[in-house]
Structures are given as structure tokens and as C-alpha cells.
Amino acid sequence: MHSDTVSIALIQAVCQSEPADNLARACEKIRGAAAQGAQIICMQELFTTRYFCQREEYEPFAYAESVPGHSTLLLQGLARELEVVIIASLFEARARGLFHNTAVVIDADGSYLGKYRKMHIPEDPGFYEKFYFTPGDLGYKVFKTRYATIGVLICWDQWFPEAARLTALKGAEIIFYPTAIGWASGESSEKVRCSQVSAWKTMQLSHAVANGIFVAAANRVGTEDNLEFWGSSFVCDPFGQIIEEADHQYEAVLLARCDLSRIEFYRSHWPFLRDRRIETYGELQSRFLE
């Protein structure tokens, strides 16, 4: 039985060229977050590598690893030592020539609780993920950790309300979004840049409000080739109010305290889940824009 209040941390970092260096730095930041009282710690998307999906090349497939595998085992030992839950986004080699964008969840005793494979895979200039990743096949999942029941979705999943709704209905109290999103360097005006970040936040805040849950997005920072990642990692409450937010360009260990009792309060006073008319939603499975 977990406490009503849980302390979470989001790791927002610049990635270097060597995966081993990124993993080592991540472990240092996890230790720092735990020392500040964090109980659940979430890394950014694909935190062991630079964002290689900007181009379609074969060499990055060498970064893929088994899940669970080397990185998972290392993080399991760290979670056990520090008694923290760790959410880690990794490049999964499922089989020869078959790869996923995957997040693992490790409980505070070091046990491996399972993984979520990214369901929505983008294909846009600078984000050629369909070249690398097969869409997830594990469905939307929740993980009952020592401190809270959590859901994990990944980056592009942020834009799809159905993903958040299904994860919330399975019992998630907090949805974590490991993320790698940014602007093309020098491409947009300041006004356009601000509007893009605003849209990104608005979508996720709406997931919190519509489902009465906490939402936590961990984005990366820094410039990698033609992408400038916009950071701005944040945690919001079940009514879409931002509790804590990181800077848009500097590394951060963002800490936030989430009072899970507020979920019941908001759902009771704004009963969106109660008033759903699921019998009217059948067309979602079959209709497109006409």
C-alpha cells in the first residue's frame, strides 16, 4: 500500500556520442535525484544515445540491445541500492533485424516489472523513426510499483488522447512520457517556436484533465546535428496545472511531489470518466476524416 504522496524526478540531459558515457552520466543523475528524495525517476527518450533518427542510416542499429539486457541489469542494481523506481527508454533489439523503441520499468527492489513498446511511430523530416522501429505490440500497460501505479507512453504517443485514456482506464495514477522533441535549428521564428511548445504542453495537460491523473514529460535538451531539443520537461496535476517545469535549454533533475489523493478529488468534482458514453464511440474503430 503506497502513500498518497510520491516524489518523482525527471532527468533532462544533453546526450553525448558514446552510449557508455550517457549511461554513466544517467546513473549519476539518478543518484542525485534519489539523494533529493525522488522515489520514481524517469529518463528521457533513448537516453543512452544521441537522437540518431534524424537520418536513415544502418549504423545506428548497432546501438540496439536486448531488453532486458545490459542496461536494464545495471539499472536494476541501482534501483535496488537506492530503493527507487526507474523508467528507462531504450533501443530494443527484439530479434535479428527487428527493433522497438521501448521503455522498461524497474521497481524499487530492483525487480524488472516489464516494458512498454512505443505504439505510434512518427515519420517526418528529422524524425525518421519508421526506418528504425516496429510499432509496439504489447498494448497500453500499467505497472504497480512500490510507490504508485504508473503508465508509460513515449514521445509521439503524447499526441493521441486514446493512448492516455486507455492507460488511465487500466489504473495509471501518473503517466510518464519519455520524450525527444525539438525544433529544426534556425528554421522557425520565435513566435512559431513558442506556439509549438505550447501545443505540445496543451495536449499533455488535456490528458491530465480528461483522465484525472498526473502527467510527467521528460524531454532532452541540447543541439544534435539539425535538431535543437526544447527541454521544458514538466509535471502537472489532474487538473492540468503545472507543478514543476524545467528550463528549455539547460540540463535539470526536475523534482515534483504528487499527492495522489487529488485524483479522487478531481474525478469526483469533474466526473469526465463517469459521464463517458462509450456506446456512442464505436465509429472510432472504423471512420476517418471524410
Topology:
Elements: E1 5-12, H1 19-35, E2 40-42, H2 70-82, E3 85-95, E4 98-106, E5 112-117, E6 123-124, E7 127-128, E8 142-144, E9 149-152, H3 161-169, E10 174-178, E11 182-184, H4 190-211, E12 214-218, E13 221-224, E14 227-230, E15 234-236, E16 242-245, E17 252-259, H5 261-269
Parallel strand pairs: 1-2, 2-3, 9-10, 10-12
Antiparallel strand pairs: 1-17, 3-4, 4-5, 6-7, 8-9, 11-14, 12-15, 13-14, 15-16
Key terms:
six-stranded mixed beta sheet, 24% helix, Nitrilase/N-carbamoyl-D-aminoacid amidohydrolase, globular, alpha+beta
Number of strands: 17
Give a short account of the largest sheet: 6 strands, mixed
Q: How many distinct folded domains?
A: 1
Briefly note the CATH topology name. Nitrilase/N-carbamoyl-D-aminoacid amidohydrolase
CATH superfamily: Carbon-nitrogen hydrolase
Number of helices: 5
CATH class descriptor name = Alpha Beta
State the shape.
globular
Q: Give the overall average pLDDT.
A: 95
Instruction: Output the helix-strand order.
Output: EHEHEEEEEEEHEEHEEEEEEH
Strand content: 25-35%
Instruction: Give the distance, in angstroms, between the N- and C-terminal Cα atoms.
Output: 49 Å
Q: Estimate the helix proportion, in percent.
A: 10-25%
Order the strands across the largest sheet as they lie in space. Answer: 5-4-3-2-1-17
Named at the architecture level, the CATH assignment is 4-Layer Sandwich
